[in-house]
Amino acid sequence: MNVSLETAVGANVHKGLTKGKLAKRIFFIILGAILMGVGIEEFLVPNKILDGGIVGISIILSHMSGWKLGWFIFILNIPFFYIGYKQIGKTFALSTLLGIAVLSATTLLLHDVPVFTEDLLLATVFGGIVLGFGVGMVIRYGGSLDGTEILAILVNKKLPFSVGEIIMFFNVFIFATAGFVFSWDRAMYSILAYFIAFKTIDVVISGLDESKSAWIISEQHKIIGEAILARLGRGVTYLNGEGAYTGDDKKVIFCVITRLEEAKLKSIVEEIDPSAFLAVADIAEVRGGRFKKKAIH
Question: DUF2179 domain: which residues (predicted)?
Answer without folding.
Answer: 234-288
